[in-house]
Amino acid sequence: MLGGISIWQLLIVLGIIILVFGTKKLRNVGTDLGGAVKGFKKAVHEDEKDADKKEDDQPQAKVRHDEAGNTYDVQAEEKEKQAADNHDERK
């Protein structure tokens, strides 16, 4: 039982719907609904492909090794300053 509705009640309602609308209209509604769902799935799938393609099209950063790099060792500079200060204090 589906929430108090039996299978016989569902069949009676289905029979009334068929009598009112006819099988041809119901077939057309089903075809239209199926086409709409199919179109929706296709659009979603294409949007996912486009999003993936846009991410792949982005250029990546290039690293060039021909430029002279500036590397600073902060700890080494601090040690040199301390050594220079200690040397000046001894004089």
Structural write-up:
The protein has helices spanning 7-21, 23-57, 74-90. The model has no long low-confidence stretch (mean pLDDT 79). It is built from 3 helices and no strands. It is an all-alpha fold and 91 residues long. 74% of the residues lie in helices and 0% in strands.
Secondary structure layout plus pairing:
Elements: H1 7-21, H2 23-57, H3 74-90
Output the keywords:
single chain; 91 residues; mainly alpha
Report on the biggest sheet: none
Helix content: over 70%
Structural class: mainly alpha
Overall shape: it is rod-shaped
Residue fraction in strands: under 5%
Distance between the termini: 101 Å
Count every beta strand, where a strand is a DSSP E run of 2 or more residues: 0
What is the average per-residue confidence, as pLDDT, rounded to a whole number?
A: 79
Radius of gyration from the alpha-carbon trace, in angstroms? 38 Å
Q: What pattern of helices and strands is seen along the backbone?
A: HHH
Unreliable residue runs: none
H/I helix tally? 3
Structure at a glance:
The protein is built from three helices and no strands. The protein has helices spanning 7-21, 23-57, 74-90.
